[in-house]
Amino acid sequence: MSANEHADVVVVGLGPGGEYVAGTLAEAGLDVVGIEAELVGGECPYWACVPSKMMIRAGNLLAEAGRVPALAGTAVVSPDWTRVAGRIRDEATDDWNDQVAADRFAAKGGRLVRGTGRLAGRRRVTVGDRTFEARRGVVLATGTRPRIPPVPGLEGTPYWTNRDAMGAKELPASMVVLGGGAIGVELAQVFARFKCAVTVIEGQDRLLSQEEPESGELAAQVLRADGVTVLTGARARQVSHDGTAFTVRLEGDEQLLSSERLLVATGRQADLTPLAVDSVGLDPTVGTVPTDGQMRAGEGLWAIGDITGRGAFTHVSMYQAEVAVRDILGHPGPDADYRALPRVTFTDPEIGAVGLTERQARERGLRVRTSVVTIASSTRGWIHGPGNEGFIKLVEDADRGVLIGATSAGPAGGEVLYGLNVAVHAEVSVDRLQHMIYTYPTFHRTIEAALGALR
Fold it and tell me: Domain Pyridine nucleotide-disulphide oxidoreductase dimerisation spans what residues (predicted)?
């Protein structure tokens, strides 16, 4: 039996956050082992954030070309998916090859081990027949995988997840999307703009059910304008595939939907059982790893990213990675603070949000004031014309006089969100925000009107 191998820190999972932790600690002079079962860099650069935004950029260009006749003349556009697929393959993913990322980690002094990491007690990780002992500790950053609903008949069919959609060389003629969250609505709009007939099935009574009702209504409106069939309050009862096409039977009626492809976009979940977290006293059945403010999950154990349950976003993982790195290096710093957690659904228009929704605030027993002002009512929105759908919604803690949540939906919703993010994070008083100078004519000037409309 070979002797155990040693390192200062072992990082299990090299997605965006894990790669950052491992690389930064290696650059700081620590002996770091990074363990990755798939591609260094994780879901975001290969199957999620980056390739999906390339798709969205292409779809938005087609939509903008369609708006030319109303504002500037004539335009004729012929969608070509091969351009999009080629850019994803060649520019974003290097044909799903992570050698550049692996070399980058090695150049920082890290040791890459390919395989599935498994805890074997405190500060111990096994990979195959190798065991690593970490002098300072272990960082868990293994992310999540698609949640596949237990719909009868679905298992064993060639359904798609986001990974299959990102790698599609050709678009199907038709597609049913199970799930109306961010992934489902983004891909539904893109595929529809490239002339795929899309139907979205969402079990809740609206799309984007975790966000404000106005956000779900807007998402449904713009998807329908792009030709997407949106079915809310609907669930798949049974799925079948005959070798050529899918058939989806809905609950509660005899409606049948037929499509060439079926995309499952019903959320993501962590699977802690393969990590053997029970070997360090954690419950593998709860689905998340609890951490304190410094991302500690136990003695000599840290966890970051999706598995902490703080939001399946790259920016959350990177933020937590910074906190964990400081703690591992012994540098003082504030605890992780999630009160101003931002997120953006990159539809056209973009739907950005930060902090609490109105419902979440009221459920916490807060006395709130809210307002909703449309982008089209602003000067910039009026100038913009076609494609100016959107709104600003503010949620104020009326007792403290500060914003605790906001939604910025519009042509630049994700960018306009930045100012609202600062306001929520820094707890800037509403009175002070009302006496700020807002640039004219901009989309963000709508915030000033929304502040004045708080009731």
Answer: 342-448
For 226-240, letters b (16+ CB in 10 Å) and e give bebbbbbebebbebe
Q: Which CATH superfamily is domain 162-266 in?
A: FAD/NAD(P)-binding domain (3.50.50.60)
Calculate Rg over the CA atoms of the chain.
23
Residue 35: which of 118, 99, 107, 95 has the closest Cα?
118
Phi-psi region of 50 (alpha: psi -120 to 50; beta: other; left: phi over 0): alpha
pLDDT tens per residue across span 52-92: 999 999 999 999 999 999 999 999 999 999 999 999 999 99
Please name the residues in contact with 404: beta carbons below 8 A apart, sequence gap of 6 or more: 339, 355, 356, 361, 366, 368, 395, 396, 397, 424
Instruction: Judge if 4-46+96-144+270-329 and 162-266 fold alike in CATH terms.
Output: yes
d(CA 208, CA 193): 20
| Binding-site positions | 53, 117, 179-186, 202, 267, 306
Query: pLDDT tens digit string along 324-362?
Result: 999 999 999 999 999 999 999 999 999 999 999 999 999
The number of beta carbons lying within 10 Å of the beta carbon of residue 150 is: 6
- Please state, in angstroms and as integers, the Cα–Cα distance from residue 249 to each residue in 173, 204, 241, 258, 327, following that order: 20, 17, 12, 9, 52
Binding site members for FAD: 53, 117, 306
Class of domain 4-46+96-144+270-329: alpha beta
191 conformational bin, left if phi > 0, alpha if psi -120 to 50, beta if neither: alpha
Say whether pTM exceeds 0.85: yes
Q: Which residue matches tokens 């390919």?
A: 114
* Tokens, residue 314: 């790259």
**pLDDT band for position 2 (50/70/90)?**
low
Q: What one-letter code names the amino acid at 140?
A: L
Q: How many residues does the chain have?
A: 455
CA-to-CA dists, residue 345 to 48, 134, 140, 215, 223, angstroms: 13, 39, 27, 10, 13
Which is it for the CA torsion 306, 309, 311, 317, positive or negative?
Answer: negative
The secondary structure element, H or E, covering residue 24 is: helix 16-27
As its CATH architecture, domain 342-452 has: 2-Layer Sandwich (3.30)
Q: Which residues are annotated as a binding site for NAD(+)?
A: 179-186, 202, 267
> Contact at 8 Å (CB) between 142 and 34?
no
